[in-house]
Amino acid sequence: LISEGQMERLSGSKQGAKTSSWGLPGLGNLLRRTWASREEGERQLGLGNFAEAEKHLSQAVSEAESRSAPRKAHIKVLLNLAQAQRRQKKFSDARETIRAALGLLAADHSKPTSERAICLELLGNLNLDEADAAAARDLFRQAILIEESLRNPDAAALVRRLRRLAQAQREAGELEDARATLAKALSLAEAS
Question: pLDDT of 167-186, one tens digit each?
Fold first, then answer.
């Protein structure tokens, strides 16, 4: 299960599992149940058991929605669920799940966040899966721009997105752009 330190950070309370930062009893129990489903779903996702992962992550999403779990945690569960759906080629379900995550991010008024970049990357992956290289290319570019604008950009995420952008460019017939993008990815990977 989630560690006490993680529980404290998520609930905003030193009492973590007992009360929330607003003194609401039970938030810790909600998080514990949601995290149990989430952790099992993530474990199954890592093992490649995508249907089982989807079952547990769907349960975690339901629990998070019914009990108003912290937004960032809810978004993470949705993104993992979308990944499980995508791996099963349930593209319309995955797209709907990603849109739900983007809906939760709407409160940030389009503020660049790593979660928004992940959503765009996942949508780009879906477009590549569905052979829409041009749409994928545009989504990867947006995800890269967002990540680069963050205070502490994730170099590994940037490299991964640059590689996916190069793949989309190659599939769209933009070979010179793909080479340049791969060179940028290699340079960044060597620097990190």
Answer: 999 999 999 999 999 999 99
Query: CA 41, 46, 48, 50 torsion: positive or negative?
Result: positive
DSSP-derived 3-state class of residue 19:
strand
**C-beta separation of 86 from 96 below 8 A:** no
* pLDDT for the residue 110: 64
Its pTM stands at: 0.77
Contact status, residue 101 vs residue 75, Cβ threshold 8 Å = yes
Closest CA to 171 of 143, 134, 141: 134
Answer whether 24's CB lies under 8 Å from 12's CB.
Answer: no
Rounded Cα gap, residues 157 and 125, in angstroms: 14
* CA atoms within 13 Å, Cβ hemisphere of 84: 27
